[in-house]
Give the backbone structure.
Amino acid sequence: MAKLHVSSDEVRRWRQQGWLSFDIESKPQLKIQDTWEVEFVRNIARSGLSDCQITELLRELAKPLKYDPVKTVYHFEYGWVTPLDYHFDIVEQYVSDWIAELGGEKDLGRLQQLISEITEQIDAIRQDAEEKYESEDE
């Protein structure tokens, strides 16, 4: 518990509140999901919100609260959210629209910059392929 920076009293109180799904003292060793649950509850319990507010917020989540405390956050407009694991999915989803918007705005400078960056990457890939092909011939 020292590693998690929590006291036995805190953990007991969180369990009594129904925020933790297990009695930490009955587990000799915590699994990563158990650690996440303690950290997740610890972070919200120390947020300054009242117990009633915390209980209400946690009611929206499926139990047990074994959420990655780094990736699960509360957004006051959208509720509980988790960022996408692969942020490039978002870029790929919107890149065509963005390029079309740049064209509509006649942003030639930004479009040329993108062409330059893309061409640079294509050239690097081609050069690597040529070097690999040449080294195989030797």
In short: The mean pLDDT is 89. The chain has two domains: 8-81, 88-137. The two ends are 61 Å apart (CA to CA). Strands lie at 73-75, 79-81.
